[in-house]
């Protein structure tokens, strides 16, 4: 079992829709969770992080964490073509960070 | 504000040649520093991390090495490149191991 798993996609949504990106992790001791966006040919940039169970909202983005289910998700509301990118989930466990392989999102105008 | 630099941006090297990639961070002291490699269409693989000058931890045994000669400088090296060393090399920094990592612009390496 991979330490951090994401559906590779591609996930395609129409402009204005909600995009839902999912991530599961294997280590129950994981303490902090991050979502990064990576445009093609560029380096990852942080979207948001979450430490506690529940939802955390930042503009059009909402991160959801369920530690009991070992599941973290990212919702993007009112998706825009500029949101088309690969989204990386990262999990910090025992003082090291592990990244998922990413989900490729395409937002169609 | 903090800034992280990497150079060169792209590099084409023959098999068997040496490698030196440099990463520097501005605007912070005693950062944790990381080297990652991302193969085409793949996730990020942690290669090395450093919590201080001269302190290097290796995650994956290979023909690469890292050094931290100054507080905000991190260098990735190889004596002889392999074809499998091709990829996108990313340097990152964080305040501490558990906190957010911020990435540099990356170096795209092609070994022929």
Q: What percent of residues of chain A are in strands?
A: over 45%
User: Could you tell me the mean pLDDT of chain B?
Assistant: 93
Radius of gyration computed on alpha carbons of chain B: 13 Å
Secondary structure class of chain B reads: mainly beta
Poorly predicted runs of 5 or more residues of chain A = none
- Kindly state the number of beta strands of chain A: 11
Helix content of chain A: under 10%
Shape of chain A: globular
Q: What's the SSE pattern of chain A?
A: EEEEEEEEEEE
Descriptive labels:
heterodimer, A: 109 residues, mainly beta, six-stranded mixed sheet, five-stranded antiparallel sheet, B: 112 residues, seven-stranded mixed sheet, four-stranded antiparallel sheet, 11 strands, 0% helix, globular
What's the gist of this structure?
Chain A is mainly beta and 109 residues long. Chain A is built from no helices and 11 strands.
Report on this model:
The complex is a heterodimer of chains A (109) and B (112). Helices cover 0% and strands 58% of the residues of chain A. The radius of gyration of chain A is 13 Å and the shape is globular. In chain A, the strands form 2 sheets. In chain A, strands 2, 4, 5, 9, 10 and 11 form a 6-stranded mixed sheet that branches. In chain A, a hairpin with a 2-residue loop joins strand 9 (85-93) and strand 10. Chain A is mainly beta and 109 residues long. Chain A has no helices and 11 strands. Chain B has strands at 3-7, 10-13, 19-26, 32-38, 44-52, 55-58, 64-70, 73-78, 87-94, 102-103, 107-111. With 112 residues, chain B is mostly beta strands. Chain B is globular and about 35 Å long. Chain B contains no helices and 11 strands.
